[in-house]
């Protein structure tokens, strides 16, 4: 199971509630690293949108069941003496953390990056998968049940 937390997003939401800064139609700053997560069979798949980020500027780390994705979007196409007129694309270093449940196999995490999309696959640990258990009885046969 994947657990997501972003304390700063929650803080921003609470601050906006108390100050009344949000109203219908108000534009808010988008998350620079949006993601989707779903389960497909025996693995979880997490997909991050990272347009404009080169593959060598992405880092994935796992420590104590916390997956950290760090990416740096650098300015591109600006020559010396260029003067920025509109800057809406967020630049800099961004990171997201996912808290992974104990039932996931953090040793076999795989990642691929294509067309600005980072796909991370996290398999379910073998010990967490359903299995059959044989029950021995006093009668002549034994039977299996799902555990």
Automatic annotation (TrEMBL):
Domain SHSP: 26-138
Name of this chain's protein: Hsp20/alpha crystallin family protein
Coiled coil: none
PROSITE patterns the UniProt entry points to: SHSP
Family designation: Belongs to the small heat shock protein (HSP20) family.
One matching Pfam family: HSP20
InterPro entries tied to this protein: A-crystallin/Hsp20_dom, HSP20-like_chaperone, Small_HSP
Gene3D superfamilies: 2.60.40.790
